[in-house]
Amino acid sequence: MIRWVNKFPDMKPKDKPVREKRDLPIVSEGDLPDWLYRKLQDGVDSERNGTWFKYSCAMANLGFESDQIVDIFDRFYFEESDFDRKEWIRTIESGCKTVQEN
């Protein structure tokens, strides 16, 4: 079995990228709630849709537009096979739309 599996090295699951703490682009720490600033630095690993939705709602409540939020959050997003960029952007847009409608 191992020999057969080793015949297909390109099919081996890829390791998740290691998330490193980063400084926020465009905005400074004072422009964001403390909890959001810390969370973005730590990265999003679980409950991705809900987490990015919550983050985008917080930013929309501060007056940011969806395209601005995408620009700010872009350096903290890592595309994965089950959570692609299109889905991520739709999640952010949905958070902004929810804030605008309420």
**Number of extended strands:** 0
SSE ordering: HHHHH
Strand content: under 5%
* Terminal Cα span: 57 Å
Major β-sheet, in short?
A: none
Q: What's the Cα radius of gyration?
A: 17 Å
Structural class: mainly alpha
Number of discrete helical segments: 5
Overall, the morphology is elongated
Helix content: 40-55%
Write structural notes for this entry.
This protein has 102 residues and is an all-alpha fold. Helices cover 52% and strands 0% of the residues. Helix 3 packs across helix 5 (85-101) and helix 4 crosses helix 5. The protein is elongated. The model has no long low-confidence stretch (mean pLDDT 82).
Question: What keywords describe this structure?
Answer:
102 residues; 52% helix
Write the layout of secondary structure elements.
Elements: H1 2-6, H2 34-42, H3 48-61, H4 66-73, H5 85-101
Brief account:
This protein is mainly alpha-helical and 102 residues long. The protein is built from five helices and no strands.
